[in-house]
Each structure stands twice: as C-alpha cells, then as structure tokens.
From TrEMBL, chains A, B, C, D:
This is Regulatory protein TetR. SUPFAM superfamilies: Homeodomain-like, Tetracyclin repressor-like, C-terminal domain. Keywords: DNA-binding, Transcription, Transcription regulation. Pfam families: TetR_C_43, TetR_N. Gene3D superfamilies: Tetracycline Repressor, domain 2. GO terms for molecular function: DNA-binding transcription factor activity; transcription cis-regulatory region binding. PROSITE patterns: HTH_TETR_1, HTH_TETR_2. InterPro entries: DNA-bd_HTH_TetR-type_CS, Homeodomain-like_sf, HTH-type_TetR-like_transc_reg, HTH_TetR, Tet_transcr_reg_TetR-rel_C_sf, TetR_SbtR-like_C. The lineage of its organism: Bacteria, Bacillati, Actinomycetota, Actinomycetes, Frankiales. Residues 13-72 form the HTH tetR-type domain. Residues 35-54 bind DNA.
Amino acid sequence: MTTTAERLRCDAARNRERVLAAALELYREHGPAFTVEEVATRAGVGIGTIYRRFPTKSALLDELARPYFERLLTTARAAQAHPAPAERLETFIRAMAEQHAVDGIRSGRLWDTTVARPLRDEYIRAVEGILADARAGGRVRADVNPHDVGVIIWTVSALIDATDRAVAEIWRRYLDLVLDGLRPGGDQPLTTRPITSADWESLVASGPVLRLGT
Amino acid sequence: MTTTAERLRCDAARNRERVLAAALELYREHGPAFTVEEVATRAGVGIGTIYRRFPTKSALLDELARPYFERLLTTARAAQAHPAPAERLETFIRAMAEQHAVDGIRSGRLWDTTVARPLRDEYIRAVEGILADARAGGRVRADVNPHDVGVIIWTVSALIDATDRAVAEIWRRYLDLVLDGLRPGGDQPLTTRPITSADWESLVASGPVLRLGT
Amino acid sequence: MTTTAERLRCDAARNRERVLAAALELYREHGPAFTVEEVATRAGVGIGTIYRRFPTKSALLDELARPYFERLLTTARAAQAHPAPAERLETFIRAMAEQHAVDGIRSGRLWDTTVARPLRDEYIRAVEGILADARAGGRVRADVNPHDVGVIIWTVSALIDATDRAVAEIWRRYLDLVLDGLRPGGDQPLTTRPITSADWESLVASGPVLRLGT
Amino acid sequence: MTTTAERLRCDAARNRERVLAAALELYREHGPAFTVEEVATRAGVGIGTIYRRFPTKSALLDELARPYFERLLTTARAAQAHPAPAERLETFIRAMAEQHAVDGIRSGRLWDTTVARPLRDEYIRAVEGILADARAGGRVRADVNPHDVGVIIWTVSALIDATDRAVAEIWRRYLDLVLDGLRPGGDQPLTTRPITSADWESLVASGPVLRLGT
DNA sequence: CATGAATGAGTCTTCATTCAT
DNA sequence: CATGAATGAAGACTCATTCAT
C-alpha cells in the first residue's frame, strides 16, 4: 500500500519535473509562443496530465519562473558573502547579469509572476545590504538607492534577452558603462527624484512588460 | 472633376487615417495583441476597408512604425544641428529617449520592421558624425563606437517601454548613469570587444526581440 | 448632343468588349477561379462598370459562353455544307473538337448556360441532318442517334479540357477510336437504350457538371 | 487495459469514420464546394475533432480519395484474374467504369491526389498485363498502348460523373462505341503519336483537371 | 455614367481547456 | 490517475456586391 502510494507520488513527481523541463526547453526556444500540446509531447505525457498539475498554461509558466528566481537569489546571497564588502555591489550586479545570461530564459522578464512575489522581499533586502557596504567603502555615488540597482539589473536583463542570442556578450560593454556611471567621481547629479518602494511595486505590478503568453 | 477625385481620395484618406489612429491606440494599449476586427470597430469602418489599404495585419503594424521612425530621424537631425558640437552626443541620446517616451509606442522595438530598413542607414551615419563631434570635444571616452550608442538608445527605449507607464520619468535616472559612464574619466576599460557593423545587423535582424504581431 | 450620346454608347460598348476580353483571358488561364476585381484591372475599368453591364459574376460568365457557342454553330453549319454528304458526320465531329481545342476555353462545359439555350435547338437540328446524311451514305452504324453524337462531342470536349494543356493532341487518338466505333462493321450492339430528347434536356440541365464559378 | 485503450481508439475511430462519411456525402452532393463546418455538423462532432484527424481540408479530401482508388485497384486485380485472358481487357474497362459509377464520387477525377500516387504504379502494371493478354488473343487493335487504356477509363469516368446522376446508364452507349473502336478490324490508323509514360505523368500532374477543393 | 471605396458574411485554421474512457 | 479525444470560441483573410462621390 505504502509502496503503491509512494510509487504513485513518485511517478507524479517525476511527471511534474518532466513537464517543467519540457516547458523550460520550449520557453528557451520560443518564449511563451508554444503550445500546451507541444509541452505534453516533449514531456512524453498526456495533455491531461499537465492540466492535472497546473490549472492553466499561465500557471505552468509561473512555475517556470520559480527556480529562475531561486537561482538569482542564490547569486545574491553569494555576493553578500564576498570577502571584500566594497566589492560586493559590482560583483553582485555582474553576477546577476551573468546568471541571467547563463540561465537562458529569454524574454523572461518574469518579476511580476505570482511565484516571484515572496522572493522579491528577500531580494530587496539583500540589495540594501550590499549597497550599504559599497557606500561604506566609497565605491558608489551617493545618490543611488537600492531600487536604482533593481532597475539597472532589470534593464541589463532585458538587454541580454534581446541581444545575447544574436551577438553574445555584447551586453557586457553596456554593463561596463553603467557600472562606470555608478561609481563616484564628481559627476553630474541624477536628474530625477529617487525611486521609492512604491515606485518599485508599481513597476513590478505593471502589466505590459511582464505579461506572459499571448 | 478634380474636386470629385479629391473628395474620393479625401474620404478614403480620412478612413485610412482613422484606421491608423485606431490601430495606434490599440497598439499603445495592448502591444500587437489586438484584433483586426477591434481596429475596424474602433475606426468605425468595416473589416474589409482595413484590408483594402493594408494587405496584412503585419503591414498595418509596419505602417504604424513608419512615422515613429520618421520622428526619431527628425530628432537625430535636430541634434546634429546643435550649435555646440561637443554637446551633440548627450543632446542626441537624451532627445531620442525623450521622443520615444513622448511617442507612446510601448513594446515598440520596431527596428527590424521593413519600413525601418531604409531609415537605419541615415540614422547610423548621423550617429557617426555626432560621436566624432563629441570625441573632438573630449566629451566621450575613447573606447565607444557608434554601435554602442545605438545599443544604449535601444536599451533605454526598452526601459522606457517597460516603466514609463507605471512610473513616469524613472528611466531618466538610469539614462543619467549611462551618460555618466560614457564620459571620459580614467575609468576601467570596457571588458568586451567593440561592437561591429555586422553585430549590429545581426542584432537588428534577430527575430525574437523585434518580431511584431503574434 | 447626338454626338455626345453616341460617344457615350460607343465608349460603353467598348468597355463591354474590354471586360469580356479580360474575363475570357482570365477564364482561359484559371477557369472560373478569378476575381471580379481582376477582371476590372485587366480591362482597365472600375469594378462598378462591370456591375453596370453584368448584374452578376455569373452573368458575365454566361456572356463569355455566347460567342463560344456561336463559333461552334458556325462550325456545325460549315460541316453541313461539306460537298460529300457521307463525309459530313466525321468532318463535323472532328471540326467541333478542333474548334473546342482551339477556342481555349478549358473547364468550359458551358452547355447549360442561359445563353446556350436558344443555340441548342439549331445545333440539335444540324446534327440530325448530318447524321441522316451519314446514314444515307452507309457511313455510320444504324443504332446511334443525334443525341449520341451530342454526348460524343461533349465527352471529347471534356477530354480536351482535361488534357490539351498538359499534352496537346492526345485527345485525337481517343477521338479516332470513337469514330472507329461509330462506323458500321458487324460490331456488337449498343448495350443501353437510345438517348432521348428528354434525356438530353436532363443532361444539359443537370447541375454538377456545368456549374460555373465557385 | 487493452480494452480501455481499444475503447478509446474505438470511439475515435468511429468519429473518424463519421467525419469521412459526412465528407463523402457532401462531396457527392457538392463536389469539393462544402465547408469544414458542414462536415462537422453533419458528422455530429466539433470542428476541432476534424482538425485533430485531418490537418487540412485538403487532407480530408485526400482521405476520401484513398478508398476510392483502393476499390479501383481491387477491380483491376479481379479483371486480371478473369479465366479467359482475351476477355480481360473489355472486362477490365467495363468493370472500372462500373465501379466508378457505383462509387458515387462525382467530379472525382482524383488521380493526382497524394494518396493516388503509390497506387498508380500497380495500376499501370496491371493494365500492361491485361493489354498484352488481349493482344495475344487478337482482341485489340495493334496501335493502342496501356496509356490509351488509361485515358479511355479516365474519359469514361468523366462522362459518368457528368451524366450518371441526370440520366443513368447513358455512358454505357458511349463506352460500347469506344470498345468497338478498340477492337481490330482494318480500321483507319490512329492519327496521333502514341501516348508515352511521360505524357501520362504530365497528364496526371497537370493541376487544373484534378485539383481538389478551391 | 464611371469609379473604386466600403461592406461583412463566410472560410479555413489554431489552441486553451474540458471530459469520457 | 493518465490519456488524448473533443470542443468551440477566436482570428486572419477573401471576395461578390452595394453605394457614395
């Protein structure tokens, strides 16, 4: 009995993984422009099986986003652990971009996914700490705040999405420029009011950028 | 006679404009995810009328892109005419972003549209001149080339698309940082090889980013 | 006044001819699978002009059939005038096939067209005379009647339609065989009852074969 | 298990048959001028069900053609097995016509359908054997070849299509004449060069005659 | 009268989702 | 539980015909 039940659970879990793996593959290849039936075929399961696990195609895509964000979070934690606090900010931003590039999820600006919500808080807190370290070390201009960092990472991610497949690595030049701009150096002040938490929430909640599928 | 002929063309032209206006509205609201029938309804014409002027939904979207690029080109020419050559580069980049923000075409990275093709050449040439001016005036670091400028503008446009509706003006902070990075100042060298013309062509030709419709 | 009126009538007549010529061309090229708009373009007139002359696309096609039948009738009359009465039947059948082949109206089994109706009577009468001549000369088996001749011509026409474009002239072998079968020679009797006038009417009126367009 | 699996397949198969039956009915009634939706309605299924089995309306029509050709082939094989070799040719031609008449597929000159392709070879080979038998028995004139037989059957089929619904059996008179012409008897030689294999291919491949749908 | 712009019903096809087996 | 068959609401596009200019 137990065995049977476990077997079932086991099979179910494996199926779930297969479906997610197939969906991820397809997402990497085509963005959200793939069919649920294609996922089923590639996963080697029936279409009904997918709908048993995921109520909706959109829910399936959400589930794709979760590990992506977990990997990002791991990256963020690693940067926090960097021995030289002053280096943490650049290390962090570069590592995030690198991770995004490696991850292969293109057109994957998935931050407003339901699953991303809980992760975002930890993420923001991490950024706050890292930025404070950089500031203490005099490695960042005074007028940027954690949300600026979020926007930078977001933008570079979009650039990676847009270009990495066509011309790999190009985004690095761009990232270099931005990091250069981040460093202190008697530069002209930023021309717009600081980004607030509320702004950030609005951004993340705003439909168009983040819409999945269709 | 002339009057009659023109009247006809007049009405037809007005309908054409109505269709384009409706399509633009819908594009601003939903990106390319709108129905030809919606366009017809909003324009107050039959569906056949749309297909009389535009052989395809995709052609209609192309036509949407055309004035957008023409406005960008006008902006570029204006920047070239700026009295102080050294100022031209920053003026140019800011003006392009501004124009894009004002234009309201969101998710509108339309550079690979058929209609954009002929405009691109003039655009690139303008950038070359402007960059040379800035370099002569010592206002830009030595290791950036015209294609870097193209990528910058492209990226900022994407950022505007993504954020301007949710939190207006935020993109300006980002742009400030990048412009700061563009200025000379003994900064760290760029970590990746320069972008070539061929890279640029690949970028622009790469389907996924720029594909309209579907 | 008169001049103007005549000019008008003249222009109108010429337009009518142009439309018919364009339609015929298109019919030869594509069968009935062409657009009214294509006719207008090729004729160099507006679409409204066509609808002024011909109430319907189908009526236009009918009008195409008229000269075709008139040519056939001329052919029939010529055969009647052949000096050797006994030769008239084969001459007639061959000439009809030839005329059909030359005419170039493919998939043009137009016998049930409204315009063909009045011509059919004269046609049948001609066949009757010709057949009587052949019979008097002992050049045709006794058990065929005028309607058999009609069916033969009809069938060969269909064969021409089907094959002449792909492999010209092949239909002649076939026609030879049939003519051979028509000649007297102690052959096996025909296995089916003679075709009556009523049969002929049914045939000609039967939809599927003759349907134009769509 | 097996039962379940087969049940599924069973129902699906039944639906498939229903769809084919409905399509055949409609084809008999209207030729290819019917709607996929009509098929669905008449078959009592959703439109999607049709598209699950047949990727295209054209593929559905192909599938209609398949059994038709298989029946023809069976007929051909039966004629080859006729005890008296000399009789085989006429038996064959008559049987083919008969089968076509009974089959009820009107306007069904479907020989260039994809599904017909593989059957054609066997068909031609059968005709060759049968013709040789007839020639050995002195029952056919010397100057006809297998392709002539093909053209004869094709033409008679067209005649059946055109007339059988309006006046049943009339085609038999015609067929009698042609068979008469096929027999030897010191008749006039055929006036055109023999039909070659290449001719036959051209014929079959020539679009206009055989094109299904639209 | 001529023109060609406008119309919109009708066609094929796709795909997320439900449901019988 | 798994399967994959069934569903049907859209969506893009065509074309005969009408009608304003």
